[in-house]
Task: structure prediction
Amino acid sequence: MKLRETIMKLVFLIAACCSVLAVALICIFLFMNGVPAIFKIGPLKFLTGTVWKPGNNIFGILPMIVGSICVTGLAILMGVPVAILTSVFLSRYCPKKFYGICKSGINLMAGIPSIVYGFFGLVVIVPLMAQLTGKNGNTMLTASILLAVMILPTVVGVTESAITSVPESYYEASLGLGATHSQSVFFAVVPAAKSGILAGIVLGIGRAIGETMAVIMIAGNQPRMPKGITEGLRTMTANIVLEMGYAFGLHREALIATGVVLFVFILLINLSVSMLNRRVHYGD
Result:
């Protein structure tokens, strides 16, 4: 038995090291190929420039940064409340005979390829937005609505697990103090699952800001500063995918540098939420 335990510990250690090594290699590749390009172009010109013209060696990615932030922010504002309420329903209100159906449907959403979501947005949401706004339907709002739908299974999965893992004593104590079922759920159980809910939101942000194919199909892909929710834009991921196929030289390096900026964004988001979780946990 001791030999088996030792072998399994070694297997787990190797698996963990492989995961860490993979992340380290990705970081090394990105920073080795992207950071030099940022300094060639000029950090301020690259990060705050509003013009992207590779043919003229002008590489300003501020429109793509703002576009990514706007699309992701709107998607989170629309998707997270729905996801949290869905999680509360599944964990505390859903009848047992319907739980399996609802849960299977949400899991199925997570397995649908992003290109299928893109086709749905292109055929259904884009024409609808065109009728409502009287403009081209390939807009920031269209992309945000689609991303809000796409992040639902990710946020619901983590949030429901967090709410379900709250000790039943919290709920029972709230009932014992005279609270109703809904009051106990929303004022005792849900607050106790804050850290798990925040983790789900972070995963949703990562899913939204990293989405590519669906956004390319419906966002308009216009490398300019966003002018409103009913106008087209281009995100950082879309910019990389659209031009990497024919890019070379400094152009290719600038696209990799865009990936570095995106990677840093994700790191900062995770770091911020980790610090917030720590403050919530210790009540500081």
The mean pLDDT is 88.
